[in-house]
Amino acid sequence: NAGVTQTPKFQVLKTGQSMTLQCAQDMNHEYMSWYRQDPGMGLRLIHYSVGAGITDQGEVPNGYNVSRSTTEDFPLRLLSAAPSQTSVYFCASSYYVPSVITYEQYFGPGTRLTVT
Amino acid sequence: GNSVTQMEGPVTLSEEAFLTINCTYTATGYPSLFWYVQYPGEGLQLLLKATKADDKGSNKGFEATYRKETTSFHLEKGSVQVSDSAVYFCALQGSSNTGKLIFGQGTTLQVKP
Q: Which residues in chain A have their CB less than 8 angstroms from residue B59's CB?
């Protein structure tokens, strides 16, 4: 299994440009999510999906769009990039463990985005 | 709302020293608690977890005990190695069954030979 894969690893955008960060998983997990990591702030949830066709907002959704047409893929779209979106973006997928009422999450390697 | 607070870093230790990284949380109900580790240039890896009060999670010599009375989940290791140098994140997953993780701000550990 490749686990959770993300592309690209690095990206530089100019203010106002749009782009899509790709995320894919081959573990047949229903739950997928996007986080951003900023210095001194840990990771914050942007959007998440509990299954194909179902998405919802996290803590910091503004400026980002998501869709989930398949179980495997969960792309994150930046509509009009701003310098405040300079960050490291992590995708995660997870499965539910009923015996402990917990999701086990697996993270991708991250995409480092710089907006100038 | 739910939140996680970690001790500020960076933490600098000599090899074989004892490590404690403090983590406290605020949550309703009975959350699950996690420690994740991020090595330089890499993504997050689950280090250990505990899903109910008094559980002890352990992995690679690291331990943490879920203390509901003090709302804490402190990470400990008896003898750190240079290879333990990384950023450590405490996180909680609320009992509302949505899978969302709330992270602390992360603590950088540097171990010197």
A: none
